[in-house]
Amino acid sequence: MAFGAFDPLHEGHIDFLRQAKALGDHLTVVVAHDSAIAAHKHRDAKQSEEERMNAIRVLPFVDEVILGRKTAHKYHIFDEVQFDIIAMGYNQLPSDEEVLDALHERGKYDVKVVRLNPFQPEQYPS
After folding, report:
1. CA 46 → CA 49, 59, 75, 84, distances in Å?
2. Residue limits of the Cytidyltransferase-like domain (predicted)?
């Protein structure tokens, strides 16, 4: 599983999702709700959630695209989706420790958190 705003989707995101798919057989991508972007980035989304979801949905290595909730609670998806691995961008927040704590609070001790390699970070920082 991978998650992010993908606002807008760029080559760095595409590489991130390719790396995530290489970790397993099924890639679920959770796209941040417009209201979550406003809450976390303190700005409106550049593209609507539907536009961002459609851009990811057409990628041949993505199996499923889910819209995150309107709330800023970032861990709701841990209770709603089955997964074995969480792929995180090289500079993506939150920290691995915070994610692991949230997983352990839900009894998910076997889920791996994997930090992926950057792709031209000077051009695509997030």
Report:
1. 9, 20, 24, 31
2. 2-113
Enumerate domains of the chain plus CATH numbers: 2-115 (3.40.50.620)
pLDDT at residue 65, rounded to an integer:
98
Among candidates 95, 90, 74, which has minimal Cα distance to 13?
90
Note the pTM of the prediction, 2 decimals: 0.91
pLDDT at 124 over 80: no
Helix (H) or strand (E) holding 86: strand 85-88
The closest alpha carbon to 90, from 122, 59, 65, belongs to 122
Question: Rounded to a whole number, what is the distance in angstroms from the first to the last CA of the chain?
Answer: 17
